Amino acid sequence: MAQVRNAAPARTGTPPAPKPATIRRIGITTGGGDAPGLNAVIRGVVMSARHRGWECVGIRNGYDGLLDPTQRARGLLKLDVDQVRPITKLGGTILGTTNAGNPFAYPCRQRNGEWVERDRGEELLGRIRRAGIDALVAIGGDGSLGIAKRLADMGLPVVGVPKTIDNDLEHTAVTFGFDSAVSFATECIDRLHATALSHRRVMVVEVMGRYVGWIALHSGLSSDAHVILIPEIDYDIEKVAAAIRARYASGHPYAIVVVAEGAKPKGGAHLVRERRVGRAERLGGIGEQLAADLATLTGEETRATVLGHLLRGGHPTTFDRLIALRFGGAAVRALAAGESGVMVSLGAPGVRLVPLARAIRRLKRVPPLGDTICTARDLGICLGE
Known about the structure:
The chain is an alpha/beta fold. The protein has two domains: 10-176 and 316-359, Rossmann fold; 179-312, Phosphofructokinase domain (Rossmann fold). The chain has twelve helices and 16 strands. It has helices spanning 38-50, 64-67, 81-84, 121-130, 142-153, 178-199, 214-222, 237-249, 286-298, 318-336, 356-359, 371-378, and strands at residues 10-11, 25-30, 55-59, 76-79, 106-109, 115-118, 135-140, 158-162, 202-207, 227-229, 255-260, 272-274, 282-283, 302-306, 342-346, 351-355. Strand 10, helix 8 and strand 11 (255-260) form a beta-alpha-beta unit. It starts with 9 loop residues before the first strand and ends in a 7-residue tail after the last helix. The model is unreliable at 1-7 (pLDDT under 50).
């Protein structure tokens, strides 16, 4: 049977979609932390929309382009083919982004200087309508997709695209940005092997990931780290120190420790650098803390390196470019088919649609008995257990 061209992705777990609404203009928003591949999604949406005669506009800096257009956001950006043609390979997002602009809990300063959260959802929807935007493609992680779901519940046709270097969204095999982050982290850790051996040091490498350990596990395993600590397995610092002492005693005078920013010791808590109204809490500091603890327990010279936002920048890998373009095209096909309140996701054998309510229900965490963790154990990598 011949393949149907431009078919919408398969839809899972929901009844048939309603009759498609009339669409002339699509709005595109990128929210949360930036990730390699964001621009490729924008290009995929714009190029796919062109074939349907639809116009595309980008909402700058999350939703601030509509909620705060006179300040740093500067309104809307008209997106045409010539503008997006060269952006597939670029990191970041030409639209800008923010992790502090949730329209349903928008940070506002009171006259007394205190910051509070206000619900500006209805106001945002009104401004979207007045801007002539008929449908929205929302590119982001769990927070951004939660906003997208609420807008869809209010009647706006919305399709979400999963974006996060953390790979923590369920119901998609992978999020774009993850492969780029892991590839760069692996390269950095590879370089640290030489320095650690030359100076006979323990090198602690802290990577992003928030409350999941996908980046730490995949980059640590791929770069032959000796210890990998992730949020899904609380670590025993004494066992980590014992593993390092045993390595030195066996004639290997250095060690590489990869730790996710959300890792925590048994009986301890996540280290939080900052809490602010309207923002997700900012994790960090576990690398320095771990290095200090290991220096005391092992007696070996120990250094900490925090890769941090380096993992978000740079050109996307080929894999991330490809799935980002596929996601962008699939989002437009979904809107053309009348879908709303769904997220495009990578399944088997191709792209499918998942209800946003399911996609954001809980974080996708590293399974402690999964094959990747089992491989780490088989290779003798210490997980702090």
